[in-house]
Amino acid sequence: MIPGSADSRLIVLVEDNPDDEALTLRALRKNNIANQVIVLHDGAEALEFLLAPDAPTPQLVLLDLKLPRIDGLEVLRRLRNEPRTALLPIVVLTSSTEERDMLESYRRHANSYIRKPVDFEQFIDAVRQLGLYWLVLNQIAPNDN
Amino acid sequence: MRSNDWSLRRRLPLLIFSLLAILVVSFSWMAYFEVKRALLTSGSDRIGAAGRQVVELLGQSAQMRLSEAKRIAAAPEVREAAAARLQGIEPELVESVNAFVGRNPLISIWLYDHNGQLMGQLAQGEQAPSVPPLQALNQPFTGVSPLRVDSGRAFYQTTVPVPGVSKDVPPVAHLAILRPLGSTQAVTLIERLIGADAMLKLGNANGDNTWTALGAPVEAAPNTQPGVPATYKRADGQSRVGMATLVPNTPWVVWVEVSEASMLGPADTLLKRMLPITIGLTLLGVLAVYVLGGRVTKPLEELATAAEAIAAGDFSRRVTLGRHQEVSRLGAAFNVMTEKLADSRGQLEARVEERTKELVIARAELDQFFLLSLELLYIGGFDGRFRRVNPAWERALGWTQADLAGVLYLDLVHPEDREATELELAKLSEGQTIMNFENRYRTKDGQYRWVQWNAAPFADLGLIYGTAHDVTEQKQTEAALHQYGAELSVANRELESFSYSVSHDLRAPLRSIDGFAQALTEDYEARLDDTGRDYLGRIRRNAQRMGMLIDDLLSLSRVSRAELTRTEVDLSAAVTDIAQRLQEMEPTRRVEWRIQNGVVAEGDARLLQVAIDNLISNAWKFTSKQPASIIEFGVAAIDDSRRAFMVRDNGAGFDMAHADKLFGAFQRLHGSTEFPGTGVGLATVHRIVRRHGGRIWAESAVGAGATFYFTLEAQ
């Protein structure tokens, strides 16, 4: 893995709930998304990984908001403050449809805000579209480091 | 009533009398003097004329006497006697002389020598007075001599030279005839000539005061210039007018005089006659003025009396003034004036009465309000003391008018509020109005109440007018409200965090349940029989339904919490939008949309979107079993003046008996197998409408469709 390279096709999933983790991974698998997925279980861990000097540049970060230690919005703010991760594609993936969550996420420059549906089939569909868009169609910003 | 003043009626005749008297007197005097002057002139002319005639007569007479003397002197025996110087000649001898003397017995004839010395008598008339002749003649020796008076008679001499006995002998003597002046015949003639009232005097021009009335001597006439009339006063005091005229050929002067009284008699007569006439005329004039003045002043008096009556307040008084134009005009004008005066006085009185009534009413109103007011009303002085308070004070604070009159406001103020109160009082005395000032005020039973004050100064009177009311309860309520508000905001924050947790934490397990049930179905399908798969299906459906319930509840709570921002919202566009969306989701359904264009509402755009979404989705849902669905949106008249937004469908409808449950949360009028739903949608709409201050209601019957009406403003 070459640090800073965008073609690592790495997906970072920040999710504290093991059930959700399992279901998300299952949904990815069901959609035949075979990218490497690194799961980080709280905000601190996510920041430690993503802001590490030798950290890889993931193709997509899936970020839950309700996280232990450091919550998702704070993670988002710190990543955006860091030049290296300022343009990283970060999709907020959460249970909430609270307005303030959405507004805050976008204010901190989340690239997208996806609500996890209760219906698992809908969830699989959402993940499929997510993968299609962010992993296939989307061109990520060139790393200017 | 005016004893000191003379009325016009008395003054006018007096004035006229004075004027007339002055006029008449001056006219009379002028006439008198004119007549007198004329009489003097004519009298003078008359005596002048008389004098001239007498003089002419006397002159001629003197000439005749001279001729007569010359004739006698020319007689030869006279010449001879003269030449002989009367020596040896007897007077009887001179025949012609004696003949002449015989005819005129009053004369005597004498001879003088050439020196004028008396030589002797030539003849003596029988009746000739024994008057001695002049002893010597003055030069010239010829002519008529001045008059001489002797023994009560006047005499004069006519002297002529006696020629010589022959032509070559010069005259050596003069002949003088001495005779008395005048005869009875001549006097009568002259008296006739000058008139009986006149008097004639004959005197010498040399001024020796020898005067005679053609015979007898008389009082001397004044020595005046001849031909000029003169007045003098006689010794007996009588005034006489006379004129002197010289007699030609003689040294005499004639004086003709008349008594001034007789001459000016007509003037006095005139004056005497004029006097009663003028007095009579004057009196007549005064009488006429008095009578006429009465006619003029009577209306004036009437006017004056009427004016006095009006001044005393009797406006009914009118005057009826006579036929004279000015006076009747005056009367008419006076009457008009009086009417106008009465009219305006009446109006004024009515207005005063009206104003008084208004004032009484205003006063009564003020008093009533003062007594009835729930507000504490008071009047105070700049000295900081109460003057008057209304009964509300007793009800609110226990103080009566008697308690507070003269009390300092500050004495009743809570010690902690005194400083602030003094500041406000200072503002008042500077002329400022104070509004909504609050302090604690002592009640009669010693407690303190919060009182709010408004007061305005009236500097001219040094008074303060104020109102106040007890705001203690309001303050308590405010405090309580503040408390409730704080509690409410805590509750809200709690609710918020509750919703947040629900949103995040309640759905996650459901997702897991559904997800793993699905995984189980997929991964272990072979090991599950139909019952097992059915159970897993039920687990998933319930998990999903639970998810929907949670979503709807969150949505409902969001509607309650969201801030309301009113803008103009195009409801027609929103309905059209939703209709399209629904149609796209179920393209096979045939629905007839009847959407009124341009329906605009004032409201929160997002909340109205939610409401319209719910209502239209409902209609869509409940018409799903109709072969031909009709969904209608528009504005409907609910009565004459009010309008409501309306959503109508021809769907399943509902029983109006359950209409009260329609808008409650989780209330459903249909089984969920019949029509899916959580029963939260209409509750959400209801809440949105209520938050806008509007109202929502429905009309329906089972199988006959339903119509929802809503308004967005309080009606």
Structure description:
The complex is a heterodimer of chains A (145) and B (715). Chain A contains 5 helices and 5 strands; from the N terminus they run βαβαβαβαβα. Chain A has 145 residues and is of the alpha/beta class. A 5-stranded parallel sheet of chain A has the order 2-1-3-4-5, with helices on both faces. Chain A starts with 10 loop residues before the first strand and ends in an 8-residue tail after the last helix. Mean pLDDT of chain A is 83; it is low at 1-6. Chain B has 715 residues and is of the alpha+beta class. In chain B, strands 1, 2, 3, 4, 5 and 6 form a 6-stranded antiparallel sheet that branches. In chain B, strands 9-8-7-12-11-10 form a 6-stranded antiparallel sheet. A 5-stranded antiparallel sheet of chain B has the order 14-13-17-16-15, sandwiched between helices. Helix content of chain B is 48%, strand content 21%. The mean pLDDT of chain B is 83. Chain B is rod-shaped and about 255 Å long. Chains A and B meet through helix 1 and helix 5 of A and helix 10 and helix 11 of B.
What attributes does this structure have?
heterodimer, A: 145 residues, B: alpha+beta, six-stranded antiparallel β-sheet, 14 helices
Which structural category do the helix and sheet elements of chain A fall into? alpha/beta
As a whole number of angstroms, the C-alpha radius of gyration of chain B is 81 Å
**Global morphology of chain A:** globular
Q: Span between N and C termini of chain A?
A: 17 Å
End-to-end CA span of chain B: 84 Å
* Envelope shape of chain B: rod-shaped
- Structural class by secondary-structure content of chain B: alpha+beta
Strand content of chain B: 15-25%
* SSE succession of chain A: EHEHEHEHEH
- Unreliable runs of chain B: none
- Most extensive interface: pair and counts? A-B, 22 and 26 residues
Radius of gyration of chain A: 14 Å
Uncertain spans of chain A = 1-6
- Fraction in beta strands of chain A: 5-15%
Helical stretch tally of chain A:
5
| DSSP strand tally of chain A | 5
- Overall pLDDT score of chain B: 83
What's the quaternary structure here?
heterodimer
Major pleated sheet of chain A? 5 strands, parallel
Number of strands of chain B: 24
Mean pLDDT of chain A: 83
